[in-house]
Design brief:
Elements: H1 9-15, H2 18-34, H3 37-52, H4 55-104, H5 110-125, H6 129-136, H7 140-150, H8 152-199, H9 201-206, H10 210-262, H11 268-290, H12 292-311, E1 328-335, E2 345-352, E3 357-361, H13 368-375, E4 383-388, E5 391-392, H14 398-401, E6 405-408, H15 419-423, H16 431-440, H17 444-448, H18 467-479, E7 485-489, H19 497-512, E8 516-520, H20 524-527, E9 532-537, E10 540-546, H21 547-555, H22 561-564
Parallel strand pairs: 3-8, 3-9, 6-7, 7-8
Antiparallel strand pairs: 1-2, 1-4, 4-5, 9-10
Helix pairs in contact: 2-4, 3-4, 3-11, 4-5, 4-12, 5-8, 5-12, 6-11, 7-8, 7-11, 8-10, 8-11, 8-12, 10-11, 16-18
Amino acid sequence: MASRTKPDEVRDILKTCRSYFVSVGIFSLAINLLYLASPLYMLQVYDRVISSSSVVTLVMLTVALLLAFSALAGLDVVRAQVLTRASIRLDRLMAGRVVMAILDSNAIGGARSQLLRDFDTFRQFITGMGIHAVFDLPWAPLYLLVIFMLHPLLGAFALASAVLLVLMALINERLVRPPINESNEAASRNYAFTEMSLRNSEVVQAMGMTEGLLRRWGRDRVRMIGRQVTASDRAAVMSSLIRFLRLAMQSLILGLGAYLVIERMITIGAMFAASILLGRALQPIELIVGSWRGLVSARDAYFRVRDLLAANPLRAGRLELPRPVGHVSVEGVTYVPPRSNKPILKSVSFRIEPGEVIGIIGPSGAGKSTLVRNIVGVLKPNAGAVRLDGADIATWPRASLGQYFGYLPQDVELFADSVAANISRFQQTRGEAVVKAAQMAGVHDMILRLQDGYETQVGEGGTILSGGYRQRIGLARAVFGSPSLVVLDEPSSNLDAEGEAALSECILRLKKNKVTVILVSHRPSTVAVVDKILLLIDGVVEAFGPRAEILARLSSPRSVPTVASAAAGHGGA
């Protein structure tokens, strides 16, 4: 379990819902007081009504009992509704924050969606039956106190019974929690692998990978199911044992009560009332054990969401900086990926003047994509800094920084919405700005030829469009809003000759508008428009300077073989 000393943003947000939980606690007290109506009714019927043969008293007691039960049912409904409202409020306060933290985190693939499922698991537990038992449990001593009032010996027996069931619940925790945790870990891996497989379904079908993929998919699935079975079997045994003990204790207290009746120490009504009270006192423990799996899952989900928010805290409001002119300074950037000791980037340093177009080249695996992801702030360097107009982008307010950045990643995915919404970055803006960006990217005429023009729905990931269409619309999204810095990672990988010409024209327009452009590419037509070239090999800057100078070095027969081979390299880490 994660350390409880970490900052707990979830707990702070839960405090804003305190009024809901206080209300639920008050309702729980009232509900548990009303549950006393049944044993009191039995006590009065056996001790007064039967001995006095008073029908009027019986009718009045019955009416009072029904009124108490009606009030109990009403309060139970209201308590459930209050918990539902608390869940809704929690969703409004936290869901967006969790998604923001997921986007800021370094979690990848299925791990990201699992974190959102964790939040929903915790939130939905608030509306489940298990939470009702949790709120009822603190009032169990109330029933034990009433049993003590009937007779100390009955009270001692009830207290011992409650302690025994609590110990059984703790044993249940020790037995059930390990397999549940292992099952959850296997499930997370399985769901992540499933999502990845579905995203690559075309590759799977085209190359006949289904059988082998199912074997790999089934590995974590079998582990998940196996541990679930172990947890369920253990929980079933413990739940049945606890139910047996509760029923046995309710019967044994009747026997103890009968002995006390024989000894004329209590009445018959007290004997039956003690059995009912003991059953009610032990019921929350039995319900909690019965829903233990959900309780453990919600608790673990709580800690994972808490750790996520603690690792990606909200940035305090900072002074709004003026629009940058596009001066980029990379200062000794070193980047080591998570769960690895090998750096991808090693003390990378260079400077770009405003309005310059820089080409980054190097062999596959050189770290080119990792470098540009550090420049745009998607990744955070382990050492060094990336500065825009002298300000570290890691400390720049992200909401304002994004409007000055344009980024086209190597793998372009569009969102399941219209072409216009994708280009506008889902901002509320006039159509002229969208059309301007499309014209800048040279894709305006292509969009007009789509079925619904700019309102065409592109589908999940832009699946209805070809790779070239997606890349050109992604370029329009990158240049939307007149950014100061545009970063393009292999922007011509899916383009034909016409698309390459449009890309080159777009870069020249950006240069004319004094926009700084960083470009990862190896196509001669694209590299021809850059001012300077940075050669990256094994995460180290091997050369940086004017385009003609670097190209001359690469073509020189005296150049180092690895440097010369960079001209033929493609892709990058």
